[in-house]
Amino acid sequence: GDIYVGDYELDVLQRFTSTGVPLAELGGTGTGPGQFDGVWGVSTDSQGNVYVADTFNRRVQKLDVTGAFVAEWLGFGANQFLKPTGVFVDADDVVHVCDSLAQTIGLFDTDGVLLERWFLPDVLGEDSEPEDIVLDATGDHIYVAEVLKHRVYHLTRRRD
Q1: Where are the extended beta strands (E) located within the chain?
Q2: Segment 113-128, tens digit of pLDDT
C-alpha cells in the first residue's frame, strides 16, 4: 500500500504511506549502489521489492522492502541499456523495462535474467522511443507511452 515517487531532479526515491505520510527518502545523486542519476520509472513486485529506472546511470536498480540496495541490471547481456525510462512489474512478477534510445522493451525475471526482448520499431514504426509501459491485470493489454510521436499505443498480447 505504500506509494513511491521518483524525483528526477533531486535523484531521490520518496516513499509515502497510502495516505501521503512521508516514510523515507532513498538515494541521492551518484553512481554507487542505491544512488541515482535521473530517477524515471518505479514499480514494485509482489514481494515489495522496488525497481527503479536509474536513467542516466544506464541501469535498473532493485531495492528490497526496506529500500536497501539488492542488485543492478545493466541491460541485455552484451547490449547494455542506453536510456532506461519506464519500469512496470506485472502480476506474474515479470519486470518490463523501456529503453527509449534502444527502442526496446526488455522482459526480465526478478533476478534480472532477460526473458524476452521487443524491438519496438517492428511494432510502433521507425523513430519511436518508448518512455513508459503499463499492463492491465490480465497482462493481455499493454500500453506504451511513446515520446517522439506523443502517443500512447495500445498493444494486445498474442498468446500462442
Answers
A1: 3-7, 12-16, 22-27, 39-44, 50-54, 59-63, 69-73, 75-76, 79-80, 84-89, 95-99, 104-108, 114-119, 130-135, 141-146, 151-156
A2: 999 888 877 777 777 7
